[in-house]
Amino acid sequence: MEYQFTIIVPLYNEEENLLRVEKELSAYLQKAPVKSCVLFVDDGSVDKSLELVKDISARNKAFKYISFDKNRGLSTAIKAGFDFSETPLIGYIDSDLQTDPEDFDLLLEHIEEYDLITGWRADRKDSFKKNLSSIIANGIRRTFTRDGMDDTGCPLKVIKADYAKRIPMFKGLHRFLPAMILLQEGKIKQVPIRHYPRTAGKAKFHVLNRLIGPFIDCFAYLWMKHNYINYKIASKNE
After folding, report:
1. What are 63-106's pLDDT values in tens digits?
2. How far apart are alpha carbons 213 and 75 in whole angstroms?
3. Are 117 and 163 in contact (CB under 8 A)?
4. Domains of the chain: total
5. Residue 89 domain-assigned?
């Protein structure tokens, strides 16, 4: 049976987390509702992350990896994951495992009816400063996009590959994935999921790039929305 679901794991300098990622995802693959595999996307790590990823992929048939020549950013890593996935369904989870792989099941329950399902960290276990900056950033983005989503930055998503591969990615677009599905006239939904404190490694975002970046990216999104080309073939000759 071929794989049906690829779980993308973008990572940058996460050597302290990767053995735990292997353990948790290996356990999930054994009981996932669809046959699933893992694709690590190493974003030019300068610690031992790539070495660990190579070892993990060598001893687990369902684990594969790609690695960048240098650090390119989260949106680029997600795009590469979309590009190199070969399954009809694509998921995404952060390597810090602040979300639970088992909660993919909550999202997959709705994938027949919807084209993107995103997790919603209704009870976030982050610092007050981090939570506040995310609330503000989500409010700014929601005002611009009108996507109705409360937590587009949640690192737990499931997307139909046909839609994911048509997203014209730019830096910062990982915050706009639901809005980009709406531009394709797709259907989106958010589902509450569990959230945990980070136990190892360091967060890659801070207050400034959680607020200034999303604000600037909103204007890029508005330009794209105004100029986006979307069509469906009604008929053609055989």
Report:
1. 999 999 999 999 899 999 999 999 999 999 999 999 999 999 99
2. 12
3. no
4. 1
5. yes
